[in-house]
Specification:
The protein is mostly helical and 145 residues long. The chain is 39% helix and 7% strand.
């Protein structure tokens, strides 16, 4: 039989007590906040996986808010740049250069038994992310060695 997985995005409204009246991004933001700072990640991730196992699932598809390697720069001050993501404080960067504490998140997930893929995400509005993504790959491999 094919594996049947529980998609963790099913829990998008969980941090809001399953009362997500503000739409998808309200739940997405609340989920990201729930798993920050990195020191809380392992316990919260274990709790989520335990609940999924209790439902009878043995496989999961991780939604990016639960484990997706993305880092962001501190929110800029000053006048708007004209770039939507930058102006709303979502300026992505090479993993480890931002404020997300992504190295600790990745290390804790793997130390806790996570064996799935780690997706590297970086969607700058002002340049091709190829070199940044290449450096992110080097860093993640180093953090995992």
């Amino acid at each position: 039989m094919n594996p049947i997985s529980y998609i963790t995005a099913n829990l998008v409204a969980r941090p809001l007590g399953f009362n997500m009246t503000g739409g998808w991004m309200e739940g997405d933001d609340a989920t990201h906040d729930l798993f920050r700072p990195a020191e809380r990640f392992a316990a919260r991730f274990d709790d989520m996986i335990g609940g999924i196992r209790a439902l009878g699932y043995t496989s999961v598809d991780l939604w990016c808010a639960h484990l997706h390697a993305k880092d962001v720069k501190p929110r800029r001050t000053g006048p708007p740049t004209g770039y939507a993501l930058i102006d709303m404080g979502h300026e992505t960067c090479t993993l480890g250069d931002g404020v997300a504490g992504i190295e600790n998140v990745i290390r804790q997930a793997v130390a806790g038994g996570f064996k799935g893929p780690i997706g590297i995400e970086h969607e700058p509005e002002t340049h091709d992310p190829a070199d940044d993504c290449k450096e992110s790959l080097v860093r993640v491999k180093r953090w995992l060695s």
